[in-house]
Amino acid sequence: MEEYIVKGGKKLRLGYTTGSCAAAAAKAAAYMLLTGRRLERVELTTPKGIRLTLPVREVRMGEEAVSCAIEKDGGDDPDVTTGTLIFVEVSRQKSPGVSIDGGAGVGRVTKPGLDQPVGAAAINSVPRKMIRENAEEILRLTGETGGLSVVVSVPGGEALAKKTFNPRLGIVGGISIIGTTGIVEPMSEAALVETIRVELRQRRESGAEYVLLTPGNYGSDFVRDGLGLDPAEAVQTSNFIGDAVEMCREMDFRGALLVGHVGKLVKVAGGMLNTHSKYGDCRMEILAAHAAAAGLRAKRVEEILNCAACDDALRVLREENLYEATLARLTERVGFHLRAKAGESMEMEAILFSKVYGELGRTAGAGALRRKIVP
Question: Is the pTM of this model over 0.90?
Fold first, then answer.
């Protein structure tokens, strides 16, 4: 890719996701299977609206199936999958539509609470939609009446997965095929922190005394759907929650309200104010500790420790009638660590939510602070 973004005064090249690679390879393989004509390059429009033209690699053509690969390019983002070939084999099937599965090097989900159900290939929802839509485009183009079977594989994927959190999440046997926009935006830490600083400074200089913070897109969605506010009101902090709070204090904001998904804020409850996974993944340990303190029996504490996602741990708490008690403890500790960072000169409150269960908890002054931000 030759597209760039500028963060913190630095020009950073964009990349494209494993999901885009799989969708592009599926489109190319389907075209070659149904037309018999070889492709050297394939075009793909990503969910972000950026159009890619990608070289098609490792083509193997047969009467019953065609296989090809697209090389992953993470741009200037430090990504362990950059340079990896994402293969797709497409074959005809009698039933209409497009079936999608994972082959060698693509992980399998073994624990509930993730994007895909237990037993499914770790090909997330947006990449599945991209694969399906691009394969269906070729079916329409060629007038084919049957369907297509699509199998994604990643040679070396099992070894690559050991460098990710997949094994801990209960995804075994390979990497995940992921991406919500189809595009990888470089995550230079210095550039990201400077971007947050610039946005906060702009808010402050425009007269804002209170500010709404959220780590990312999940939080922006909840700001809109759960709080009834314009997501544009929120400053996205990414993983740099502590840095953002410190900046708010330095810029003399009178208050900041952090709205975040439990998967992020549970780390804050443990004192982790940079929530990037490279610094650790203590979500289940923190949840289990608060659940145990609230009275959860040992066997179910162990079950939480083995959960892959927070929503699954919340299910355990609901089953044991300790949901509210545990979340109250957790929310209090989130507030404790945020206020310690904010100091006494600034109001600091938080709202926790889950995509499955909605709002989970809010610190004591969160409602009043929210009204100060947007009356």
Answer: no
